[in-house]
Amino acid sequence: MYTGIDLLLYLQDYRLSAPEIIDNFFHLISHPFLTGLFPVLMMAVVYWCYDKRAGTYLAFNIFAIGICTHFLKLVLYVPRPWILEPSIHPTAEAISGAGGFSCPSGHTTAAVAFFGSFAVLFRKLIVLPVLCLIAILSIGFSRMYLGVHTPLDVLLGLILAACMLWINWHLLTYMDRNPQKDRLVVLGIMGTSLLLTAGVFFRSYPEIAGVGPNVVANAFTSFFLPIGWFCGFLLGWLTERRKIHFTIPHEILPRVIRSLLGLMLLLGLQAGFGVCLPPLLGTDMGMFVSCFLLGLFVSAGYPWFLRFILGKIRFPL
Quick one: average pLDDT of 208-223? Predict the structure, then answer.
């Protein structure tokens, strides 16, 4: 199968003689924060302060695409390019953020999940979707330029994430028309996640030269994190739809205060859960429970606080 190793070698020859500022630029746009935590924080802000439906679409894309990406990484079991071809030498900074398997590219799917969602939501603005497309292609290219993904990894990531954008848009449209079906949708998504989990557990993982047990362990951890986030968000989202019904203020200042307070609480909870839960429950289970609780906080915990706590004291948020 053609993977594009020859293209990586060509880009590597250019990279070794190119100005360092180009490497720095591609490291910056593919930084784990920009393709990991930042999209989740922005999703929370959109959900709390701009539009619940738009925030839900972002959440569905970020978490569902994350689950599918890491499921395929475990199923396809493709080593990184420098293992397939020893003459490929990625940058040290890029290797530090490339701990699991190679196909599909997680940075590419995360870029499509985030920027692609905004392109769909604001498709009538023309300029914004074009900028989002440029960001997606730049991040995908950066993974090849830095030597940590093949063109096949990036292409499969683009196709997978684009399909999920389409599926989630139509899924939410279906629920807009059939709001009573929300429980069925939640159960369906959770059941699918359970089946995917069973699939990776019962798959055999033969030894591959250059692929140590830590790579498989990293891949499993990365798979369970978006499942935790999505399950927590879904349960909270269902609770909010049926019990909480929080509203978003029209004024700008209350929205800004609401977002800042919510982000402070979310980051504080993340830090606290990260310290307390893994030692108590083990690394994987602790991280899963932590992500579950954080997802629940985003979709129901903070909205409940806004509606029933601040609402009682008539605080304008």
Answer: 77
Contacts of 41 by beta carbon, 8 Å cutoff, 6+ apart: 263, 266
DSSP 53-73: HHHHHHHHHHHHHHHHHHHHH
Query: How high is the mean pLDDT of the chain?
Result: 89
Q: Provide the residue ranges of all domains of the chain, joining segments of one domain with +.
A: 5-309
Alpha-carbon separation of residue 18 from 14, 15, 99 (angstroms):
6, 5, 26
Residue 228: the pLDDT is: 93
> Which is it for the CA torsion 64, 65, 67, 68, positive or negative?
positive
The predicted model scores a pTM of 0.92
Q: In angstroms, rounded to a whole number, what is the distance separating the alpha carbons of residues 179 and 171?
A: 11
- Residue whose structure tokens are 């389409």: 166
Using CA atoms, how far apart are residues 135 and 167, in angstroms rounded to an integer? 22
Q: Which residues contact 130 (CB under 8 A, 6 or more apart)?
A: none
Q: In which band, very low, low, confident or very high, does the pLDDT at 90 lie, cut at 50, 70 and 90?
A: confident
pLDDT surpassing 60 at residue 274: yes
The reported pLDDT for the residue numbered 128 is: 92
Exposure string over 212-224, b if 16+ CB within 10 A, otherwise e: eeebbebbbbbbb
Q: Is the dihedral of CA 50, 108, 236, 242 positive or negative?
A: positive
Contact 161, 116 (CB under 8 A): yes
